[in-house]
Amino acid sequence: MFFNLLFLTMFYNIFSNGLIIHKKNNACSHLIYYPVKDFSSNCYRKRDVVPSTPDMIKLNGYKFETHEIVTEDGYKSLAFRIPPKIHDNRKEKQPIVLDHGIQVNSEVWTWRENRSLAFVLVNAGYDVWLVNQRDSGYTTHVKYKMSDFKFWANSLDTVATKGISAILNTVATATNKSGSIIYIGHSRGATLAFMYASEYPEEAQKILTGVVALALIIYFEPVFYVKLLFQLSPVLSKIVNVLRIPVINYPVKNTAKFFKILCTGKFQKYDYVKKGSILKYYQEQLPLYNLTNCKLPVYMFYGTCDIFIKEKAVKKVFKELGCSEKEYFRIPSGTNTKKLKFGHNDYLFAKDIEELFYRNLLRVLDKLQPKK
């Protein structure tokens, strides 16, 4: 179900920008409809409304700060900080970075009113940072416009090393809490954390106190949709280039890169060479990310109905990690949970999210409190 929506969204974002005239909804009658605003009959087009993470934070009654994160390769992304109440010192205002997956942005952490993870964590006393990657729509560049194709010409490796490093250093400087920051990533957001921690283990240990990976994708067997996307991506890229369609917010190329790496069955770096005007991808002798370099405490969650992640893959990552403090959790847990289902995106939308996920997550976060 998740990838049906993902695949449909990708085609929608490509062709609605240049080939198909489509009503673009930007307002809904209730907060719960925003995740499906492009398809819901409860949403509509309003000229003076552009829903955003700040809008959702304010609608839910929280104060926030906007921070600009600048990477060494010229990208400027917005991060939204939701601090706990002034006199709330239960968690000593420990910073938590929430990083999103593919095809979405920081808005996903705010869509469910007071049940949204961002607000659950703030209410628990944490200093929450909602970050955006360079393909999220909350990013500009010092040289290129979003309509320039060079804006999107970066590898997933660059996003992980330059992007995550800039985010964490910004949060550490702003909070003065280097060494006590928790990183929570969903899907690709989790994958980026392990790329970063494998490449910069010393920096990661200096800044972070632990990583919580939700629906981590590193090793998986490609399902039909991924195989189809992989086969179509060169064609789609050519269509976009020929028709000069600016694929705003969710570029197919970056998504294709993500699944290109994963389809190899190896946690390897991505590379390409330019041949004429066509990018020719190759995989021969590419270096691998060394998970033994990751010495941080790691806690992983996976759903029993996640079509991308199986327990076998989780155990493989678990075995390769170089940290001594590590644990993984199945959702739902127990033996009498066959009727309960938890998929790849249910960390955001599950009906019983408090019981199935939040309760265990908060216990894990308690383990990652700064050591006194």
From TrEMBL:
Stretches assigned to coiled coil: none
Gene3D superfamilies attached to this UniProt entry: alpha/beta hydrolase (3.40.50.1820)
Keywords: Signal
Signal peptide positions (record): 1-16
Domain Serine aminopeptidase S33: 117-332
Keyword Signal tagged: yes
Entry annotated with the keyword Magnesium: no
Family matches, as InterPro entries: AB_hydrolase_fold, AB_hydrolase_lipase, Hydrolase_4
GO biological process: lipid metabolic process
Residue ranges of domain Partial AB-hydrolase lipase in the record: 54-110
Source species, domain of life: Eukaryota
UniProt-listed PANTHER family: LYSOSOMAL ACID LIPASE-RELATED
Identification of the protein by name: Lipase
